[in-house]
Design goal:
The structure holds two protein chains of two kinds.
Chain A lengths: L5 H11 L3 H13 L3 H24 L12 H11 L6 H18 L3 E3 L9 H13 L3 H21 L4 H4 L1 H19 L4 H13 L17 H20 L8 H14 L16 H15 L1
Chain B lengths: L12 E3 L3 H18 L5 E7 H10 L1 H9 L12 H7 L3 E6 L8 E8 L4 E10 L2 E7 L2 E5 L5 E7 L4 H11 L4 E8 L5 E8 L5 H9 L3 E7 L16
Parallel strand pairs in B: 2-3
Antiparallel strand pairs in B: 2-4, 4-5, 5-6, 6-7, 8-10, 8-11, 9-10
Classes of the chains: A mainly alpha, B alpha+beta.
C-alpha cells in the first residue's frame, strides 16, 4: 500500500482527487494483482453477509450456546418501535442492528470480521441504518467498506486490532474509528474530515480493557458493539460539523499502542480480570464449567 | 506490515464467535486437511494457551473439525462439524496440551489418513489470520493467505535453483520462501508462497525434479464464488 498513516491516506486521496474508498480499491487491486471489479465484487458480497446477519439478528432466535446472551437486539427494536426512545430513530436503529450482528456472532451464525468477530456489529450497525435512512445503494456502501478497510489497515499496522493484544480499545475502538471515518466520507466529508472522525472516535475508547466473562465473546462484547455504533455516529457528526481532533489521529493511534502495551495480561482477553472476575462473572464461569461436565 | 490487504481487515466471512478461536482455527484445520490430501481417519487435536482454556465456549474444537472437513471459515455446517466428522468416519479427539507453547493461541494436529500421517502446529494471530509454524517436525512459516507450495525433497545442491527456475519459466512470482532440513544431505522441506496458483503442468515439472519426493499445495481460497473450487489442491 502507498500509505502507512492516516495523514498519508488523506493526502493521497486529496492528491489523486478520489475518495478514501476509491483509493483503497485501487491500492487493493494493485496489491492482489486482481482486477478491481473482482475485489469490489468480493467486498459487495461481504456487505450482503452483513445485511443478512442484521436480518437474522432482528428476526431469529440468537440465544448463544452458553445461554448467556441473545435477543437483546429484538428487545431494543421493539422498544424503538413502541416508545419515544432516548436516542431517537436513526441512532436507535444503529444500536439495534449492531447488537443484532454481534448476537448472531455469539450464536455461531455467519458474520464478517470487521476488523474482528468480537467487534463485528459496529460497521454493519452504522452502515445498514444509514443506508436505510439516506437511501444509498449497495455500491455506495461497498466503497464505504473500502474506506473503513483503509482506516483499519493503518490502525492494525501501527497499533493493533485484537483484544488479546491491546484490549477492547483495539477491537471495538478500531471498529468505531473505522465506522466513523467511513460514514464521514459517505456523508460527503473530505478525507481530512474522515481522518478527524477517526481520531475523535478513538480517543473515546482509549483504555478500554478486554474482560470477557468466561472468556466468551458475549459479555460485555455485545453491548459494547451497540454503544460503539452510536459513538461512531456521534464522531462522524462532530467531524462533519468541523470539529477537529486536536491531537492528530495518527498520534492517537500511537497512544492506543502505548496504552495497550501497558495493559496487564489480565485485562487482555484472558478473563483474568475486569468484569470476568467480579463475583457474578466468576459464578457464571463456574456454572459454565459445571454445564460442560454434565 | 503485519496486515497486508483490505480483506485482512474487513473479513473473513466467518461463522462466529471469535476470529482467532473460530475462523483462524478453521483455517489451520483446512490447511492440514489439504496437506494430508484426504479426510483424516484419525485426528488428535491438542490445544495450548487460550485455545486450551476456552475452546469449548468458542467452538474452536468445531472449527478445527470443520477445517479438517475442508469447510471454509463461513460454512454454516461449522457448528455441527464434530458430529459430521464422526458420521463420516473421522476418529477425532481433543485435549489440552502441557508444556511450553509459542503463542497464546496454539494448536497441534496429529493426523493419519489411509496411507500417510501428518503433524502440524498452527497459531492464530488475530482477525482470522494464521501462521503454520511446524509441519512434520520441519520449521515453516506460512500464512495461508497465498497459494502455497510445499516441496519435500532431499537436501541436495541445486534443488532450490531448479525450483525457482521452474517458477520463472512458468511466470509465477514467489512472495515468500523458506527451507528447513533435518540434517545436512537429509530430508528437507521448502515452502513457497506464490502470487497465483500453480498450473498442473508446473506442478508435474516440480514433482519430476531430481531429489524431489513430493509436492503439496495449500490454497485456502475464500475469494468470490466464481473462483471457488478452482485450482484446489492434491
Amino acid at each position: 500500500m502507498n500509505f502507512q498513516t492516516l495523514n498519508q491516506l488523506a493526502d493521497l486521496a486529496q492528491e489523486r482527487a478520489v475518495s478514501i474508498g476509491a483509493l483503497m480499491l485501487e491500492e487493493q487491486s494493485a496489491e492482489s494483482g486482481r482486477p478491481s471489479e473482482r475485489e469490489f465484487a468480493k467486498m459487495k458480497e461481504y456487505y450482503g453477509v452483513m445485511k443478512e446477519a442484521v436480518r437474522r439478528g432482528m428476526e431469529t432466535d440468537t440465544t448463544s450456546r452458553s445461554g448467556l446472551t441473545g435477543l437483546d437486539a429484538q428487545r431494543v427494536g421493539a422498544y424503538n418501535a413502541g416508545n419515544e426512545s432516548c436516542l431517537g430513530g436513526p441512532a436507535g436503529q444503529a444500536l439495534a442492528y449492531a447488537l443484532a450482528v454481534s448476537e448472531v456472532n455469539a450464536s455461531m451464525g455467519r458474520i464478517i470480521a470487521t476488523p474482528t468477530a468480537g467487534s463485528c456489529g459496529i460497521i454493519p450497525g452504522v452502515f445498514l441504518s444509514c443506508q436505510e435512512r439516506f437511501g444509498w445503494d449497495d455500491d455506495v456502501m461497498t466503497y464505504g467498506l473500502f474506506a473503513a478497510g483503509a482506516i483499519g489497515y493503518v490502525i492494525a499496522n501501527n497499533s493493533f486490532v485484537s483484544g488479546a493484544e491491546g484490549g477492547c480499545q483495539a477491537e471495538v475502538g478500531s471498529a468505531i474509528g473505522m465506522a466513523a471515518g467511513a460514514l464521514t466520507e459517505l456523508r460527503g466529508g473530505t478525507p481530512a474530515q474522515a481522518v478527524h472522525a477517526v481520531g475523535l472516535a478513538l480517543k473515546n475508547s482509549l483504555g478500554l480493557i478486554c474482560d470477557p466473562v468466561g472468556g466468551l465473546v458475549e459479555i460485555p462484547c455485545i453491548v459494547r458493539n451497540g454503544f460503539g455504533a452510536v459513538t461512531a455516529l456521534a464522531a462522524a457528526d462532530m467531524a462533519l460539523a468541523g470539529v477537529r481532533s486536536v491531537i492528530p489521529s495518527d498520534e492517537v493511534i500511537k497512544v492506543m499502542l502505548e496504552v495497550g502495551a501497558a495493559m496487564p495480561e489480565k485485562h487482555r482477553e484472558t478473563a483474568g480480570g475486569g468484569l470476568a472476575q467480579t463475583p457474578t462473572g466468576r459464578k457464571i464461569m463456574e456454572d459454565l464449567r459445571q454445564q460442560r461436565r454434565q | 506490515m503485519r496486515f497486508k490487504d483490505v480483506f485482512s481487515i474487513i473479513g473473513p466471512a466467518m461463522v462466529g464467535p471469535s476470529s482467532s478461536h473460530t475462523a483462524g482455527a478453521a483455517r489451520i484445520g483446512r490447511a492440514a486437511r489439504q496437506l494430508l490430501g484426504e479426510m483424516p481417519l484419525k485426528a488428535e487435536v491438542i490445544f495450548y494457551g487460550s485455545f486450551a482454556a476456552t475452546y469449548q465456549g468458542h467452538g474452536t474444537d468445531r472449527a478445527i473439525a470443520g477445517g479438517l472437513l475442508d469447510f471454509p471459515t463461513d460454512d454454516l455446517r461449522l457448528p455441527d462439524s464434530i458430529e459430521i466428522a464422526e458420521r463420516e468416519g473421522m476418529d477425532i479427539s481433543f485435549r489440552q496440551g502441557a508444556g511450553l507453547f509459542p503463542h497464546p493461541n496454539t494448536v497441534r494436529l496429529c493426523l493419519s489418513g489411509s496411507g500417510q500421517g501428518l503433524t502440524l502446529t498452527g497459531i492464530s494471530i488475530g482477525g482470522g489470520n494464521i501462521e503454520i509454524i511446524e509441519i512434520d517436525e520441519f520449521s515453516v512459516k506460512l500464512s495461508g493467505m497465498y497459494p502455497t507450495v510445499l516441496i519435500h525433497h532431499r537436501d541436495y545442491l541445486g534443488v532450490l535453483a531448479s525450483v525457482t527456475d521452474t517458477m520463472r519459466r512458468g511466470r509465477v512470482n514467489i512472495g515468500h520462501m523458506s527451507l528447513d532440513r533435518k540434517h545436512r544431505s537429509g530430508a528437507a522441506l521448502t515452502v513457497l508462497e506464490l502470487d497465483e496458483m500453480l498450473a498442473p503442468e508446473l506442478l508435474r515439472e516440480l514433482e519430476a525434479l531430481p531429489a524431489v519426493q513430493s509436492v503439496k499445495l495449500i490454497h485456502l481460497d475464500e475469494s468470490p464464488k466464481e473462483e471457488k473450487g478452482k485450482g484446489k489442491t492434491s
